[in-house]
From TrEMBL:
GO BP of this protein: glycogen biosynthetic process
PROSITE patterns: ADP_GLC_PYROPHOSPH_1, ADP_GLC_PYROPHOSPH_2
Broad EC category: transferase
Nucleotidyl transferase domain segment(s): 7-268
Known EC number: 2.7.7.27
Similarity annotation: Belongs to the bacterial/plant glucose-1-phosphate adenylyltransferase family.
Stored SUPFAM superfamilies: Nucleotide-diphospho-sugar transferases (SSF53448), Trimeric LpxA-like enzymes (SSF51161)
CDD domains in UniProt: ADP_Glucose_PP (cd02508), LbH_G1P_AT_C (cd04651)
Matches recorded under InterPro entries: ADP-Glc_PPase (IPR011831), ADP_Glu_pyroP_CS (IPR005836), NTP_transferase_dom (IPR005835), Nucleotide-diphossugar_trans (IPR029044), Trimer_LpxA-like_sf (IPR011004)
Name of the protein this chain belongs to: Glucose-1-phosphate adenylyltransferase
Keyword Nucleotide-binding listed: yes
PANTHER family xrefs: GLUCOSE-1-PHOSPHATE ADENYLYLTRANSFERASE LARGE SUBUNIT 1, CHLOROPLASTIC-RELATED, GLUCOSE-1-PHOSPHATE ADENYLYLTRANSFERASE-RELATED
Amino acid sequence: MAHKVVSIVLGGGRGTRLSPLTEQRSKPAVPIAGKYRLVDIPISNCLNSGYNKIFVLTQFNSASLNKHIKNSYNFSIFSKGFVDILAAEQTVEGDRWFEGTADAVRRTQKNLLNVDYDYVLILSGDQLYQMDYSQLIDFHVDNGSDVTIATIPVNAKDATAFGILKANEENEIVSFTEKPDSQEVLNWSSEVSDDMEKQGRRYLASMGIYVFSKGILKDLLTDNPGMDFGKEIIPDAIETKKVLSYQFDGYWTDIGTIKSFFDANIGLTDDIPDFNLFNETVFTRARMLPPSKISGTTLNNTIVSDGCILNGDKLERSVIGIRSRIGKGTVIKATYMMGIDYYEPLEDVLTLGTTQQPPPVGVGERCYIENAILDKNCRIGNDVRIKGGLHLEDGDYETHTIQDGVVVVKKNAIISNGTRIGC
């Protein structure tokens, strides 16, 4: 039986730990896999699950996110489906920003009045995973749950970074703790599958994915003035409602840091990646780009998006975004090049390639780049060497940032001929 579900994707966080990628865009708008945005993941999961009534809550640096959603998700006039943006706004009830996940949903509930639904599915806009939400909803309905929380088993080391739930044999959540220390977490193990037990993953981490029965969400947000689901609303619900754990044992990662973002993208180049782009359709903005042209380049475990012109010597274990340009003799390893938003006129490329004032957009000739993220529209000249690694100290500079050994070249940055970073 198909259930009536409305989905709410939370997309308003500052994403400070992903800086500088979030200096000019919100976290859910950060490009992934060369052609998508992070927000495409939960929206695609919804559409693949048969749920097409979706609100996206936005706030900080939301212009590019709003533009992307407007240009990507348009349904037939005969369809009742929608992907609508709900931005923080001044109203007679208040004029402040959203102050947390629960506050954002509380202040936008009025938009649900004209939607026919029985269950509310609340999702994060900055996670990488594939899930059939219909199985989650079926579990919620079949077990008569008021609130269901998607959980993923993690080991003791990773558990210290998450909200950890303790569930009994009936999957009822009986207690919750936020980011326990290494000793405290040992008391928080739950029943998990044999496979998870063998891996030492016996602690249930909240994935930030919630299902609420109609009316339950409104009651909880009315009775509890708390601003955050994980820290305030969910602990309160555990005391007063039937709250169940739905265990998910697939691939899932929270894109919270530069290192996790880098690893998630480079992991896509594996022979059989944990997040398989060839499994389910990931929807995004349709672009009418030409096919990529590759001349004299050796490719190894590399993803190449549409519209690229690649003349480099070797690309290895890298993700190359749309419209990327790479010059002759260049070697790129373990790098995510986000791509370019526009094509420069050929005459400008030829002129800039001679004068290098500034270099053409893209990567020039005879460069060596490794362990790096190149944000959109950067201009990297000829003979540039960028080599990330744990030998580098964290730091923020005019053209780039270094975090956990990853060199992040900032959006629109200009790297002059012969520049060396990390070498």
